[in-house]
Every structure is written in structure tokens, then in C-alpha cells.
Amino acid sequence: KAGVTQTPRYLIKTRGQQVTLSCSPISGHRSVSWYQQTPGQGLQFLFEYFSETQRNKGNFPGRFSGRQFSNSRSEMNVSTLELGDSALYLCASKQGEAGELFFGEGSRLTVL
Amino acid sequence: AQSVTQLDSHVSVSEGTPVLLRCNYSSSYSPSLFWYVQHPNKGLQLLLKYTSAATLVKGINGFEAEFKKSETSFHLTKPSAHMSDAAEYFCVVSDLRGGADGLTFGKGTHLIIQP
User: What is the tens place of the pLDDT at every residue in B22-77?
Assistant: First the structure.
């Protein structure tokens, strides 16, 4: 069974640009969550999608958005990039409400 | 509200010696507790989880953790460290719902294994 797949793995952008990251969950998993990981703030919850609906949202500005498609694949978008958005963005999927989270390897974004 | 504190940001042990990574938590509900490991440039992998069954939980790669409600602790241990154990370890607490929004991650403990 394939794991959680995130693309791209690495990318470099400049301030003011926008970026879209993609996540394919494990087959059969309907919940997809996104996290931002930085050395200073650690792991912070961005949002969770379940059956194409945003179920929960963390404390991030509106520049951060996401969506989920009918096949459970998810994308997150960050507009008007700032230097502080440089981070490892992790996607995780799970099967049920109390299921274990399975993480992808992340997309490392560098903003110059 | 829930919170989790990993008491050590870095732990260094010699290969073959015991490992102890400390975690304290607070939760308004009956918590579920997890330990995840992250190797460099990788995602997080679940080591073990406590969900109100046995208080001593065994995980992968020889790790185990004991839930102590009176001490609000969930320390991670391993009898004998291996070089491949060098990684970042995260203690995670979840409220009764167990949903992603209910997860709180610790700041992480960097485990260094000396040869």
C-alpha cells in the first residue's frame, strides 16, 4: 500500500509569489491534515479536510488555504509569500476519527 | 485545553545504553498520547500510542512508554540505543475526540547517539 505522497519535495520561491503544494493520502483515507514545521515554532496545525470539506483550521492568516478533491487528494496554497513562510510543510492522512496519522515526507519551501 | 512539554530539547547517550525521553502533558479530557519519530528530511512515523488500555505501551524498534496519570507523564524508553535511533522525537497529546484539530505536539527532543 502506497504511503502519503507529497509533491514537490523541495521548492524555492521569492517573496510575493504564491505556491501550491499537493498531497495524495493513503488509499481509503478520507481525512487529510496539513502542518507547518519550523525550527522556532515546531509543528503547527494548518487545517484538516474530510470528504472535500474543511473540518478544522489552525491559527494561520488567510494567505494559507487548501482544498480537497473527490479522490481525497488535497492541495494547499500560500499566496503573497513571506520570508517567514519558509518551512517544511507536512501532510498527514488517517482513516477514521481516532485513527493513526500517517505522514508524508513533506515539501520543503524556501522563500528568498 | 491541553498541552505537552518535552523536558529535554537534546538527549545524548552512548550506543548500547538506555534511552529516556521525558514528556509531561495536561489535558481536560481522557487523553490519547503518542510518540512519533522523525528522521532527517523525513515525515513523522508513529512509534507507539496510548488510548486508555494498558498503561505500559510497547512500540516499534524496541521502544516503550508508560502512562502515569498521577504524574501526568508519558516517558519514552528503550533498553539499548542503536545508532539508527538518532532522530527527533515528538510527544503528542490528543483530547477524547482524537481528531487532527485536537492534537498538540511537543517541541521535540533531538536524540544523539554517541558511538
Answer: 999 988 777 889 999 999 888 899 999 998 778 899 999 999 999 998 999 999 99
pLDDT of residue A111: 98
Contacts of A96 by beta carbon, 8 Å cutoff, 6+ apart:
none
DSSP letters for A13-43: E-TT--EEEEEEPPTT--EEEEEEEETTTEE
Q: Is B99 on the interface with A (CB under 8 A)?
A: yes
A55: amino acid identity, one letter:
R
Dihedral over alpha carbons A60, A109, B39, A35 (to 10 degrees): 20
Please indicate if any CB of chain A lies within 8 Å of the CB of B82: no
| Residue A107 CA neighbour count, 13 Å, CB half | 26
CB B31 within 8 A of CB B2: yes
pLDDT digits (tens, 9 = 90+) for A57-95: 888 999 999 999 999 999 999 999 999 999 999 999 988
Chain A residues closer than 8 Å to B99 by CB: 48, 55-56, 97
